[in-house]
From TrEMBL:
Protein name per the record: ATP synthase gamma chain
CDD domains: F1-ATPase_gamma
Membrane topology: Peripheral membrane protein
Record-linked PANTHER family: ATP SYNTHASE GAMMA CHAIN (PTHR11693), ATP SYNTHASE SUBUNIT GAMMA, MITOCHONDRIAL (PTHR11693:SF22)
Gene Ontology molecular function terms on file: ATP binding; proton-transporting ATP synthase activity, rotational mechanism
Family: Belongs to the ATPase gamma chain family.
Protein role: Produces ATP from ADP in the presence of a proton gradient across the membrane. The gamma chain is believed to be important in regulating ATPase activity and the flow of protons through the CF(0) complex.
Subunit and partners: F-type ATPases have 2 components, CF(1) - the catalytic core - and CF(0) - the membrane proton channel. CF(1) has five subunits: alpha(3), beta(3), gamma(1), delta(1), epsilon(1). CF(0) has three main subunits: a, b and c.
Record Gene3D superfamilies: 3.40.1380.10, ATP synthase, gamma subunit, helix hairpin domain
Annotated GO biological process: proton motive force-driven plasma membrane ATP synthesis
């Protein structure tokens, strides 16, 4: 009977765990929907902003602004966007592997999210700064991050600024990605900004590019002044979009992980219930045999 009591306790414990994971799954699903809407809402704006910058860049050239100029010999600065909480599957693990594979060991690190901040700090990486971002992501909290990265690049200490984040593809797929933020290149301006196929040279169509080349601008006050306004806005929005894409990936991964945990718990409960019923039936059969044997002995 002790075995039966142990199995009952285990069934009760697994049921409690299943209730918790189910609740976490529902919460993650609700947050995922908000994060998806937030990520999708900015994609059209990012695409139009890119087209404007393509037009401007073709008319003023790369030397018109320091954020467009390629540098040699400097270090790399990387913004790593991870999660503050766990229970989201292999999301942070895969992103950490991507950072170790694609980022040079001497690169300086700026982090958003506690998980990879702790991991990279223990690995001996040079940590410059850490930022906290609320959920859902407000645009105002992307500005100081973009400003910090831009200032570090303009001061001349870095030849490249990159961002590592979890690229949201769909509910079941979140792809760790490292993309160049600064200097702003023609390729990055030509990429689709929905982040599907990021880094795969998805160009603006030839018709759009031809239209960009055919447009001739008259700048007032000057091309550099226009770029002084638009390029920081572009960088701010790029950082913001990567933050919301990463947050959508986090909630999607957590919902899938919690659904898997709930399904496994239900399967385990069925197995324990079957085992419990077998032991209970065996115990009842043994008692019936004892009673039958005693009755025969009394005859």
């Amino acid at each position: 009977m002790a075995n039966l009591r142990d199995i009952r306790r285990r069934i009760k414990s697994v049921k409690n765990t299943a209730q918790i994971t189910r609740a976490m799954q529902l919460v993650a699903a609700a947050k995922m929907k908000k994060a998806q809407d937030q990520a999708l809402a900015g994609r059209d704006y990012a695409d139009l902003l890119n087209q404007v910058l393509v037009n401007l860049k073709e008319n003023v050239g790369e030397e018109a602004h320091p954020l467009l100029q390629t540098r040699e010999g400097g270090k790399e600065l990387v913004l790593v966007i991870s999660t503050d909480k766990g229970l989201c599957g292999a999301l942070n693990t895969n992103l950490g592997k991507k950072v170790r594979a694609d980022v040079s060991p001497d690169a300086d690190i700026v982090t958003v999210g506690r998980k990879l901040r702790n991991q990279l700090g223990k690995a001996g990486r040079n940590m410059l700064a850490d930022f906290e971002v609320r959920d859902p992501v407000p645009f105002s909290e992307a500005r100081p991050i973009a400003k910090f990265l831009t200032k570090a690049f303009l001061e001349g200490g870095y030849s490249k600024v990159s961002v590592a984040f979890a690229n949201y593809i769909n509910v079941m797929r979140q792809e760790p990605t490292v993309v160049q933020l600064l200097p702003i290149s023609t390729a990055s301006l030509g990429e689709k900004q929905d982040y599907e196929g990021m880094g795969k040279d998805v160009k603006v169509g030839e018709t759009d590019h031809a239209a960009a080349l055919s447009k001739d601008y008259l700048f007032e006050p000057s091309g550099k002044d226009v770029l002084d306004t638009l390029l920081p806005l572009y960088i701010n929005f790029q950082v913001y979009q990567m933050l919301v894409e990463s947050r959508a990936s986090e909630h999607s991964a957590r919902m899938v992980a919690m659904k898997g945990a709930t399904d496994n718990a239900k399967k385990f409960i069925k197995e324990l219930t079957l085992e419990y019923n077998k032991l209970r039936q065996a115990a009842i059969t043994a008692e019936l045999l004892e009673i039958t044997t005693a009755m025969k002995a009394m005859e």
